[in-house]
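Task: complex structure prediction.
Instruction: return structure tokens for all chains below.
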Amino acid sequence: MLNRELSWLEFNSRVLEEARDATVPLLERLKFLAISSSNLDEFFMVRVGGLQQLLEEGRSAFDPDGLTTEQQLAEIRRRTERLVADQYQCLLKELDPELAVAGIQRLRIESLNPEQLAHVERIFTHDLYPLISPIAVKMLAAFPLLPGLRLNLLVRLEPDKESPQTPRFAVLHLPRTLARFIAVPDPAKYTCIPVEEMVAAFVARFFPGETVVECMPFRITRNADLSVREDQAGDLLGHMREVLDARKRSNCVRLETDERISDVALAFLRQALRITFEQIYKVPGPIDLSAFWAVVKLPGFEKFKDKAWPPQASPGVPPDATMFDVIARKDVLLFHPFQSFEPVVRFIEQAADDPDVLAIKQILYRTNENSRIVAALARAAGRGKLVTALVELKARFDEARNIEWAEALEHAGVQVIYGLKRLKVHAKVCIVVRRESTGIRRYVHFGTGNYNEVTARIYSDVGLMTCDEDLAADATAFFNAITGYSQPIQYRKIEAAPHGLRAKLIEMIESETERSKQGQKAHIIAKLNALVHRDVIEALCRASQAGVKIDLNIRGVCCLRPGVAGLSENITVISILDRFLEHSRIVYFHHGGEERVFISSADWMPRNLDRRVELLVPVEDSECRSSLISILKTCMKDTVKARRLLPDGSYERVKPARRGKPLRSQELFYRQACELAQQAQKNRYMMFEPQLPAKTTRK
Amino acid sequence: MEKKISTTAKEPAKASARTVAVIDIGATAVRMQVAEIGADGTVRPLDSLQRAVHLGKDTFTSGVIQPSTTDECVAILQSFRRTMKEYGVTQPEQIRAVATSAVREAENREAFLDRIYMTTQINVEAIEGAEENRLTYIAVHDLFQKDAKLRNKDVAIVEVGGGSTELIFVRDGRVTFSNTYRLGALRMRETLETYRAPAERSRALLGQHIQRTVDQLHWNVSLRKVPYLIAVSGDARFAASLVHPSWDKQGVVRIDCKTFSELADQLVPVSVDELVRKYHIPYQEAETIGPALLAYEHLARAFQVKHILVTGASQRDGLLKEMAVRGAWTAEFAEQAVHSATLLAEKYGVNDGHSQYVSEQCVKLFRELQSEHGLDERYELLLRIAGLLHEVGVFISDRSHHKHSMYIILNSDLFGLSRKEITLIALVARYHRRAAPRSYHTEYTSLDRDDRLVVAKLAAMLRLADCLDRKHLQDLKNITFLREKDRFIVTVNDVADLTLEQLAMRDKASMFEQVFGTKVELRTALSADEAITHG
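Output:
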């Protein structure tokens, strides 16, 4: 097995690779750089934080590869140093020159012309000076409590005359409301300077009568791996607030600072934060590269960005049809963001407005601000429908936002259930109960992505809309179980974690193994974000040994070591990184020719299969199923954005076969989506439909 | 013209199908099934909810349901209420809720049921064992339709519940015996805890406990060999799903007795905590599994059963089916009830021409006097059965045999009849002779006024029918009735000499005259000579 932390770092370096790929538009490269930085932040907060905590508590353990916690941390340090060096190499040597040519430049304060300097000074005086208050640090114990991941300045002042040996320090915390890059007047270009440089330039104003010897930016990262203590009775909402507070105070796991920092200043920070040299990263440029998102989002540089790929209409969903009619006719498979998320939103909005709809039940995990779905749920409740929303507060780093709209929904009359004790609900499902002339009919949407209209435009996900009786009954039973309305009841077709999903997966892998042993063709294809679970990996290796062909498309962490003779030589692992974040989970089993395809919310990690509530949903409609198989197979053929995992844990780019045409799967999917949408529209023109009077809109 | 027909802007659909909910409050769980009943009576399950409760534990240890348990039940039913609304189940006639032994036997059951009604508007009916049996029979009835092998064999339908065991024996698709025993899985568990029996002793202890019921059963049922046992309960379903992991819990699975024993051997010693951990089931459920499986096993062994059939059907299915057909079960159950009355009569040696004859005459009279008594056909059935059973007391002694008849009937289970119906039959039989109801006849006076009137009316008709076979020869075959203004004339067309009958009538007709306000006259249409020719 490969070490999961190192595999994750490999993943992040693949992200950085996109930033260094000259064929990618310039601002997209900057975006990938920013992503690689925020990814790393989260990695430190969660994974490194967890490991360091293990170490502190003296619970050092071996990873499946035999590495001790200390060894893992050392490896992480080694690999991260290289990654960070690459990040700054990329920014300073590769992107900055090209950005300058493109008309985006970041200047140092010394390079500003007098007019620009005057402008900057004005901004400092009016907008920054009143917001920043320096905190003098008289002794180490009085070091202020600084929030994680925010930028600060450490100021070293000339020592007092009485004690010339004692350096004096102050800390300036830059509030999050400040823009990171301040634009300065320039007729030709977008020119900016980083806010910390600007504050540093005028920092003496905070200390009248003193001499500032040094002013260096720094940023700390705190351990976020504080699990909510759910076993202690009480309300979860209150607990989540506590976690949010605790996260502000937890241990420092990383310090980033400018490489020019003096030894005395660094020693001071090290003692104040109680950290070791291994936790310090000195960088040659601006700290926190995720701040470059602001530059990526600048208006007017469209030619340095990806050409827009507006989501296409789903061919199965006519633009004016009610979703209920559409789904009643046939199962609908949606492939976002190539196809629009609109049908899902419309489904819930129409459910809110339809007089025959009795109830809506939905799981909300991470949703966007001003979500139309949340609004529709509130509206439905206002119209007397029974709306139940399971709001997962434990969506990491999104807790604050979740709490906010959960309370808003409650006010609207929605029955809000705040997650489950000990388990995080990660499954994505929405059920609409509708009374029709033939009786009750339930419509269900199962997704691999969250009900988030924003991420649905950048994450590649699939969703199934169906009114299949068994799936609807299962979805209902599943919802009853997770909302505590009922004890779990055996499902007809689906499987759910934490109880049955892992066993089912292994059972299906073993069934392929058995078929292969009996000389049948056997093939497994899976597309996931991560593969870590030891039991599943072992089952896959056994399958490989039995001759089962296994194609894995795993975007992120993969602990399975492929291509090892006698162990995993029939396993191919690829990872695709492209403009859309690969996010869907699709699993295929050849099953003796009766192909079985599932969509799922679960990655194959211990936390997903054993500690989260997840779903595995069979797709039985033959058309939907073949679309999914085609998605899986197309990805495996990608020769542009795919990387192959090698037995040593590193990745290499997949090259097109000699004289073969390069294939970029996301581009192909988009082209196909466009063609299908056009074809569907053409077909509608070919049909003679009587024009009906406009529907009276119901209030 | 504002609005024309459009496909989407329709009025709220008026479903021809109706949604209903049935709730079953058991010893260890409260369960609800929401279903849709199609126009053709098919039942389509929509939603099943199940929550664990401590009702059985309360009642079987302290005799009363604790306030905290009541609160728990109220909270569960309130959340069920919400689920019902999600399917448009809002009217009382769409809901049927029953409670079994744990509530039935609780000293504070009325307070409990009232509290539930007040807080949830759900009217829960505490049903008795006989009613449970009836529902179970409806639930598994389909099996007999589908499986010819079952139809022609002796079959025991067994439900080992938390507080009681329901048993139905069926032969040729007809119920031959049914009874409720106070053998409950949870009761057994409580017994174990009272004795604080060590694990290795517990099996033997439970075995002895179960054996007592089995012995009692052997007294009641002459059968020694029953090839099939149908097990109906959550514990049985749990066992079956271990043997057949792919079972969908809908249809029937077959387990041979050996496998079942092995499974019981394996599970009985497992501690409750271990069961919970291993199978992710609630504690309340885990507590009953061992004792219940042991009970099934003992029963299977006692009747040399070959195969245990576990059905996914439950009392809730029985409730649903009954709601689905809205009383179409009446004919089926009337026949089943008559059949079990016949078997009872046989057991006491009175299933003879006389009781058959009286029973037939009762039915004739009942129909003839329809406009006078104004009772529905359910009472016809009670009268018919009273006719069959009025002389069972003779088994004990001819003297005061009407009193013996009463308590034999009172203490028998007649399949398909409720306790109250059996009481009515017993009282009708009680008054088939000379004695009229008196204020010190407590069984009679504890009835409400309507029921007292029913007893009077039915008894009056039974007496008349009995008179017609005073000789116990069933020779009066051709009888016609005629109603005049103040007289009810019974004309016998095939017998000339009615002396004995008329004598009897003088004693017994007074009740009829009081109840119906008409005199009865018994006449013959024949002269003595003609009678001889006919004879």
